[in-house]
Design brief:
The protein has 193 residues and is an alpha/beta fold. The chain is built from 7 helices and 6 strands; from the N terminus they run ββααβαβααββαα. It has a 6-stranded mixed sheet, sandwiched between helices.
């Protein structure tokens, strides 16, 4: 895989494993975080640390399973000391995310945190105000040539530091569930006619 040999930015020098993403490549919904953390770097899988456990718990509460969604990050290698990804790292790595989205062709994208939200807003021609202003909102956009529901959520790691934010993440995942159900009903009803 191309990501395994990538040297477009300096993150390859300090990573243990690249973390491309995982899940159903035919998923209706893709969740996009910012970058791998310590456990993700060790295991080469996205969202397997404490934030991942919280995300998985909220997903399961709303009828999702990791196997039937796709989970990835904007940046595929861990920034040192879990710092935020730099703009040049996002720019270097984002073509991989674009490729993934072109292959999966999701109907719903949930951004988890500021970096993925800013990146996808820029692709969709939206203006990012702040996580507080955009959190829990749904945007109908054209992205990579397809109509997509873009749903904004705080990153699960934020709720580990501020437990009050969990409710907002739960609201975003519930909204995602409702949109998925609506889309599935539309397909079901159109197939009946």
């Amino acid at each position: 895989m191309e990501i395994n040999n990538c040297k477009k930015c300096d993150l390859w020098k300090t990573r243990k494993n690249p973390v491309p993403g995982e899940g159903d490549v035919n998923a209706l919904t893709v969740f996009i975080g910012e970058a791998p953390g310590y456990w993700e770097d060790l295991m080469g899988r996205p969202f397997v640390g404490a934030a991942g456990k919280l995300l998985e718990e909220i997903l399961e509460e709303n009828g999702f399973s990791r196997k039937r969604v796709y989970i990835t990050n904007v940046v595929k290698c861990r920034p040192p000391r879990n710092r935020e990804p730099k703009p040049d790292e996002i720019e270097a790595c984002s073509p991989y995310l674009d490729q993934q989205l072109n292959i999966i062709k999701p109907k719903i994208i949930v951004t988890l945190g500021r970096h993925s939200t800013i990146y996808l807003f820029s692709k969709a021609g939206l203006i990012f105000k702040s996580m507080r202003a955009n959190q829990g909102k749904i945007y109908r956009v054209k992205l990579l040539g397809s109509p997509i529901y873009l749903i904004v959520s705080y990153h699960p790691a934020a709720a580990l530091y501020n437990p009050k934010l969990r409710k907002y993440i739960e609201d975003s995942i519930r909204l995602t569930r409702d949109v998925e159900r609506k889309l599935k009903n539309e397909v079901f009803n159109s197939e009946k006619h």
